[in-house]
User: Which sequence fits this backbone?
């Protein structure tokens, strides 16, 4: 099976809620698997419907859905809990015992802070991009509605820069501590007491090195993920819309956002289009309205476009999803 030219290793499928993102993502993943590729489909939408479409329970671990096609539904809350536990373990390696109790309390409070689940989701996504993806020819991301998808795309670069700043502050602190230790430390007597400080020096050095290693590893992870997302040879965005005003406006915002982020728009999908031959006056009016929005979408981007008619039955189950594939190939 010949694949369209816009296909990349990493495909992000997004759009306004209810336009059929998950259906398109599932059909796209099945198309690639039928072409003999090894494919992973990942749902990052907290309101998962990927398992419903495939009529099977998909969890946070890889599940084989079809030959050549595995699926994952990322559990944001579970990822956040795992993320916090990881932070605790890292803190325990680099902090002295008396500080650990208060630090642990603050970390646990951070679990419920705004953005905690998002940060955990981004880290899991970054690891899929940089680690899990080595086992697959393609990874298809079924994203949440547009605002969430945009944050998912921009956060790796943002977190990478933030971590780089933390690393810079940490290195400055190391330099200051080295000067302080060299001078022997300041005591109430006004005298230097090198002997009192000396036993703690190796432990301090080890703690500083552990912290620096953790920060570098995170920086490198987010940098690598951001580099993949903005590489047009490796990643593309599939924008899905129905021929109505709000979804069309959403797609226009998506296309502007992709241009700003230097990300490749791979395919524009116009979904749930009414058939041409209609006799009912109400449907004829709807069809006329659709025609204007379809023309607007056609002019919105120079990327590949496909048109999927409204199906007689819901695209639930492997056979119904397969019915969508020919439209993606056209």
Assistant:
């Amino acid at each position: 099976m010949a694949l369209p030219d816009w296909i990349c290793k990493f495909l992000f499928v997004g759009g306004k809620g209810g336009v059929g993102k998950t259906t398109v993502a599932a059909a796209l993943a099945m198309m690639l698997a039928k072409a003999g590729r090894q494919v992973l489909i990942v749902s990052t939408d907290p309101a998962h419907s990927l398992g419903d479409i495939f009529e099977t329970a998909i969890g946070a671990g890889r599940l084989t859905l079809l030959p050549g096609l595995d699926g994952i539904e990322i559990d944001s809350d579970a990822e956040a809990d795992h993320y916090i536990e990881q932070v605790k373990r890292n803190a325990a390696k680099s902090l002295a015992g008396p500080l650990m109790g208060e630090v642990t309390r603050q970390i646990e409070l951070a679990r419920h802070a705004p953005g905690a689940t998002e940060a955990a989701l981004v880290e899991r996504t970054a690891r899929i991009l940089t680690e899990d993806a080595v086992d697959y020819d393609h990874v298809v991301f079924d994203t949440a509605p547009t605002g969430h998808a945009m944050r998912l795309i921009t956060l790796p670069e943002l977190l990478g820069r933030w971590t780089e700043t933390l690393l810079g502050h940490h290195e400055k602190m190391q330099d200051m501590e080295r000067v302080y230790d060299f001078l022997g430390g300041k005591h109430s007597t006004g005298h230097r007491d090198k002997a009192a400080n000396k036993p703690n020096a190796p432990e301090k050095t080890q703690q500083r090195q552990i912290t620096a290693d953790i920060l570098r590893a995170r920086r490198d992870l987010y940098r690598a993920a951001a580099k993949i997302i903005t590489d047009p040879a490796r990643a593309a965005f599939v924008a899905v819309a129905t021929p109505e005003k709000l979804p069309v406006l959403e797609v226009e915002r998506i296309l502007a956002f992709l241009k700003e982020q230097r990300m490749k728009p791979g395919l524009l999908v116009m979904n749930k289009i009414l058939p041409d031959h209609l006799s009912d006056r109400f449907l004829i009016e709807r069809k006329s309205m659709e025609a204007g929005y379809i023309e607007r979408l056609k002019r919105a981007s120079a990327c590949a476009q496909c048109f999927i008619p409204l199906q007689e039955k819901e695209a639930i189950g492997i056979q119904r999803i397969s019915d969508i594939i020919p439209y993606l190939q056209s």
Q: What stands out?
A: The radius of gyration is 25 Å.
